[in-house]
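fold-stage: in
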Amino acid sequence: MNRDYINKTTLLCLVVIISALFLTMIHQFLMAIFMAGLFSAMVSPLHHRLTAKLRGREALASILTVFGIVLLVLTPLAILITMVIAQAISVGQSVTPWVQGFIKEPSTLSALLEKVPYYEEILPYRDIIIQKAGELVGTLSTFLIDSLSSFTKVTIGAIFSSIIMLYVMFYFLSMGDLLLKKILYFLPMDDDSEQKLLKRFTSVARATIKGTLIIGIMQGAICGIAFAIAGIHGPVFWGSVMAVMSIIPAVGTAIIWLPALIILALTGDFAGVAILAVLCGAVAGNLDNVLRPRLVGKDTEMHDLFVLFGTLGGISMFGLLGIILGPIVAALFITIWEIYGEAFKNYLPNVEVVLKKRRDDQDYPR
């Protein structure tokens, strides 16, 4: 057997084994490292401009860039999270007695049902509706209380991950270009495919940050203001929840404000209904259609199905960071299959001919 073949096979096995061992050892820091790389790529143009103004002192430019992120992004975010936690606890404390009373006294829902149009037609199903509504409210209450306790643990972990991320960002900004060249060198792909994959990654990441997050923040802020004007308790909490829900295509913030609108209508608060319908439905609901084409270039847009499954799958796998990571993974999935199609185009069938032939067979049955 060829000695060179044995050496390369042994080396490849050692590379896989030791790399897997190393990644397993640092798996709890991988997300922070990945986010550091993502944000470093986002602020890289700013870092280059600072380096030029500081006459090539990259370390100082990296320190100023990281400090700017802490001052302009993480500090306001920490204040917002503190307000959200405080209002979430307040909402949970106010909802729990109401839920307990609702479960014990379902006559409240019965009185609300009497205000619904065509009440006589649904009267035979009143007991079933009350029973199912009680079960749903109890489930939602339990979910809310459990989420509050788990959210506190997640917040502590996020603080620690943020510190790691900022520390790694300093080195990525200082030596990111050299590290990226090393990574691309070790990938056994041609340069065009590597550049296409890298360009797709950075463009989708930038589009996700600019598009999804900015639109989500704006929609959450508008809907939170609408809740405050309508007199709904915990507007900052509900606005933050709607900012997260805005990432879901077609449904978005309506998951929260539409049930609130229905409850206000059943309780006779038609002024609140008008406020939610105008601000949440008409204004916030159309922000996505108006701003997304401007914030997200057409070359980085994906079909709504890929956005939906990428976002929901990203959240289920990565947690809240899946809002950013999910669409990126979906875009890389599409891109890698495009590269595959170009690399193996000589071995793949001509789809247009197949479809044309199939269409002809349907038009002229034998």
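fold-stage: in (second)
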Amino acid sequence: MPGAPDPAFLSASQRRTVGFAVTLAAICGSAALIILSFIVLGRLLVFFSSVLWPLAVAGVFALILRPVVELLIRRLKLRRPAAVVLIYGIVSLLLGGALFLLLPPLIDQLLDFITFLPTLRANGSLYVETNYPQWVSLIKRQLANPTVRQIADAGVAEGRSLLSHTLPSLRAAGGGLLGIGAFVAHVAIIPVYLFFFLLSTGDPTRNLPGHLPFLNPDLRADLVFLLREFIGIVESFFRGQLLIGLIMGALLALGFTLIGLKFGLFIGLVVGVLNIVPYLGSIIGIAITIPLAFLQPGGGWTLVGLVLLIKIIVQTVEGWFLTPKIMGERTGLHPVIIIVAIFFWGTAFDGILGMLLAIPLTAFFVIAWRLARYKYFKKT
């Protein structure tokens, strides 16, 4: 009929279906792009890790020590280079004294611990075979089954793969003297990076707005705010975790030594330092100290109970005193979120670097989401 409007190409329900499909495809595409970005970034970090980790360590220490430099400049009326040199001198004396006192017994206990590992394994096997022969025979019968054996081998291979991804430095350790030399060279360059980082003055983000003239002023202000928040989180997190880890290490080393746990000084300090990654030191500490306390000469359930008592006391001190006083509520993350974040970022960045940065990165994204929700998604 002339003059009648053309019928719609799609009905209303079909348009809704197409709109839903297009929206779903856009969401899936965005998610895939984000995942691909994490994968690419993780591979780049792994590939350039030998270059990046000395810079990262120096940058974190610079953020931690910058307030001390500013304090020396204000109180002692020193120039910045003189204040930095003074800090280097104080730190060198402290480290030298600590190494002079602790390094010989630590090396002795480390070598003794490595030597004792076969004995520990043999004692564990003997204990199980003596007290639980039915379990040993059951395991042997099941491993004789090809299907069960295949599953067990697959589990062992998966565990080795997980360990190699979690601690990629273990793979690099096979590089022999060349790998050791490269590691020493990277450690030696950290003080040089740190010196120049500490010489820089002012807010590291102060010139950032001038480099982003192509952005909307509000978006530029948001990016600068988020970057400053991230730097503040990194600074407070690592400063707090380092201090908490050192205090916990000292308490654990003292407690383990007093109750007679073999290699207590070495294990306590290592477990404490590993608490820089939340919960990592506690998990590894329990996995090492309980079998050692039970199977070492003169050990048993009494020593296991004492080890657990020391762990509970130190964890109580950390949870009720150290973390609230030192860290406060800076990150504001639930413990479950912290655990998930550690595994997520450790997987995303393929190693220990992601686990170290898990809490700052997660807190940063939480702040970014809160900012976006407040500014761009609030109800009008």
